[in-house]
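Possible regression after last week's pipeline update?

I re-ran a chain I had predicted before the update to compare outputs. Posting the input and the new output here so someone can diff against the archived version. Not blocking, just want to make sure nothing changed silently.
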Amino acid sequence: MPSGNKCIVVTGYGPFRGHKVNASWVAVQELKSLGFDDEQVELYVYEIPVSYDAVKRTIPDLWEKHKPDLMVHVGVSAIVSELTLEQQAHNDGYDRDDVDGQIPHTKMCVDGSCHNIIASDLNMSLVCEDINSIQEMKVKAVVSHDPGRYLCDFIYYLSLHINKGRTAFIHVPPLNAPYNAFELAQGLRAAIKSMLNHLPLH
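New output (post-update):
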């Protein structure tokens, strides 16, 4: 891991629709408890409401407050069964109600952005290989290019728009389908360690 203190901000989402307990926030809390072997890693975790307005208010403030070396957003998806590393996010198509019954007025994340898709500078294929090479860990990882045009896609695009060199998004499956919270946290920790090693040099 590169030398010097590394500040990492990890967010998980709160309850929504069929997810009265959101596996993403449970896994992020477990990650906080698990911690990092490296004392030079400063980890901050936040639960974000499944709300477009809350994301738009909160995420720029977290970037400004912490100036993180790495911002990792975590969300749950009922259609994934592995740790799913998202490579890119979309600016438009946000027409599904959030927990407040709201959608963005323009159905866009960042009005006026000239990029409909922004990809992270972090190579998720390399991160995926690193995770899957850890034989003693139960969790396996895959790479995806479609975070789903809901709050997960939305939060990812917003952070990529702020700093695409230091932003990542990870989808986790629901709890015990097949991984428990501790196993998911182990996977998140492995992913973050890999991402720190692959951070672009700028």
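Follow-up from reviewer: compared with the archived run. The radius of gyration is 16 Å. Marking as no regression found.
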